[in-house]
Amino acid sequence: QVQLVESGGGLVQPGGSLVPTCAAFGFTPKNYYISWVRQAPGKGPEWVSDTSSGSGYTYYADSVKGRFTISRDTAKNTTYLRMNSLTPEDTALYYCARNVRGGTHRYDYWGQGTQVNVSS
Predict the structure, then answer these.
(1) 61 burial via Cβ count (<10 Å: 0-12, 13-18, 19+)
(2) Chain-centre distance for alpha carbon 80
(3) Distance, CA of 59 to CA of 54 (rounded, Å)
(4) DSSP annotation of 18
(5) Do 120 and 14 meet the contact criterion of CB atoms below 8 Å apart?
(6) Do 34 and 79 touch, CB atoms closer than 8 A?
(7) CA–CA separation, 46 vs 25, rounded Å?
(8) Cβ burial, residue 19 (10 Å; 0-12/13-18/19+)
């Protein structure tokens, strides 16, 4: 059974860091593009970052480039999103999702999300 499970969100002060994780079950993440997508209160989903299948190339939205780093541990079937220099604008529910094919941003499986709150 394919499943994605996020964890590692929380409350952090502006300028702080968090590392949400995405554990995959029932498939091998390195064979797929894995995306992080976030949704802030009252807003639509926003794509954040991808790690590609195979070599694991990484891609970032302009809003997080230079602050967030996506990575994966193939032995643990886990994808990470290191988030540094957080601002209140990063407050959102963060999801990981499996791309149907390549980096199309069409997803067939989503996790349940992990909440990130940035506030003083």
Answers:
(1) middle
(2) 7
(3) 14
(4) B
(5) yes
(6) yes
(7) 24
(8) middle
Q: Residue 88, SS3?
A: helix
**Token pair of 38 as six digits:** 């976030």
Half-sphere exposure of 92 (CA within 13 A, CB side): 21
> Nearest CA to 13 among 100, 83, 109?
83
pLDDT tens track, the chain, 120 positions = 999 999 999 999 999 999 999 999 999 999 999 999 999 999 999 999 999 998 889 999 999 999 999 999 999 999 999 999 999 999 999 999 999 988 889 999 999 999 999 999
Hey, is 90 helix, strand or coil? helix
Residues whose CB is less than 8 angstroms from the CB of residue 93 and which lie 6 or more positions away in sequence, other chains included = 38, 39, 40, 113, 114, 115, 116
Lookup: tokens for 8: 């590692």
